[in-house]
Amino acid sequence: MQDMQLLQDGLALMGVGMGFVFAFLTILVVVTTLMSLVIRRLAPAPAQPAPMPAPASSDKADDAQLMAVISAAVHRYRHRHRHRR
Amino acid sequence: MDKLLTLWEGSGLYNLTLGQAAMIVVGLVLLYLAIQKRFEPLLLVPIGFGGILANIPEAGLALSAAEQAAHLARPGVLEQLAAVLDVDLARGASLDAWRHAVSAALHADITPQAYRAANDLAMDAGYSHGMLYQFYSVAIASGIAPLVIFMGVGAMTDFGPLLANPRTLFLGAAAQFGIFATLLGAVGLSALGWMDFSLNQAAAIGIIGGADGPTSIYVSSVLAPELLGAIAVAAYAYMALVPLIQPPIMRLLTTQREREITMTQLRPVSKLEKIVFPVSLLLLVALFLPDAAPLLGMFCFGNLMRECGVVERLSDTAQNALINIVTIFLGLSVGSKLMAESFLTVETLGILGLGIVAFGIGTAAGVLMAKLMNLVSHMPINPLIGSAGVSAVPMAARVSNKVGLEANPHNFLLMHAMGPNVAGVIGSAVAAGVMIKYLG
Questions:
Q1: Cβ atoms B51, B338 nearer than 8 A
Q2: pTM value?
Q3: Which of A84, B159, B189, B330 is the most exposed place for a label (fewest CB within 10 A)?
Q4: Chain A residues contacting B, CB < 8 Å?
């Protein structure tokens, strides 16, 4: 019975194929996990750079100094422009 | 008057067969789907247009030199062809009958030597291969185009999510069940006597369930070139339909609570891991399944170019210019297989039907596998990412994300679903390797 033969071949291929796909990917899971472990042990990722202090967190004294510098600059700029006219 | 008659007899309208007209309509439908409905336009535009070109009467764009000669040659050349092909030309029969006999002999099972001899003879007589036939032999019959595309896909793939959670590889493996279940379905249809597929053809049809265009084309070019047109069209059309096919199956197999599962944040993956991964995958292929080496070798090569960071230019070419060029020729070559006599058969309907079943079963197997893993593992897994195990990158992962957002608007599954998604690419390439090993 040739049809039965074909069906059997199909079933065999299904078994072999699914089995192999799972076996291969299982090995890949193991290898990948080991690889990651080894790499992270031997060459630890550079620590995440510490978060930059937010500019808003600067203290009052700094702010005052900044204001002084800016207003001096603005003052000088206006002064110079007036002269040129 | 005679001249006018010759002109009329040389016109497309006079020579158009019903099958060719039907196939031109099929080509136009593919163009409509691609342009208006945005179904995988990058491939369906060239495929649809190639299909129209292949069916232009008398132009013979998709025919080999011998087939051209059989259609057009003088009686003297036909007699020589018949001698090479071992055909008896009935004395006194009409020229059309001779042509028919020679064409039939070329389409029947003849030895490659006889076919080559016939081709040489036809070329000596001044006939040449059609343009699309040339494209097909260079791009697909040689196996090159699908492999170059696979390299480009490798260069576009980020294995980060997979490396962060390697267990998602199991989901990619489970979804390949669609391939083998469809193979069994095709064999079953033959056993019932409804269709007539050999085991090789059944395997090539099954690979549609891998939802991976280049892999499908590669496998069918090796195992069943005669079905390539239908298989490629089914594979790309259904890949475009993933957002329609998958969600109902996913909702059916999961409960609301399962769909709401949030997954833990993926850990960052170092550059070194990403560089070592394609190399270790390649070594595994070399050790265990050399038959998958063409597909996975090119895939790993493309990925290594992307991740190693020192060949930006090559990586950029592989994922843009090169893949675009190859896609054009791949599409036109697939179109050349949409000739009326080989496409308009009951088998094509069977392939289209089996293809959609393959997608459905693959999706279901992935979801069920995710549920199983959820039972045994302590880290929660949302079963929706299982459906992304059918490759169709990145469409399937987007579908998982979308269905997940419907259940829980704060649950973004996209990155988690990319893991099984690229695992599906590896899985279907492995399945292809097994089939070629077993049947090739």
A1: yes
A2: 0.86
A3: A84
A4: 3-4, 6-7, 9-11, 13-14, 16-18, 20-22, 24-29, 31-33, 35-36, 39-40, 43, 45
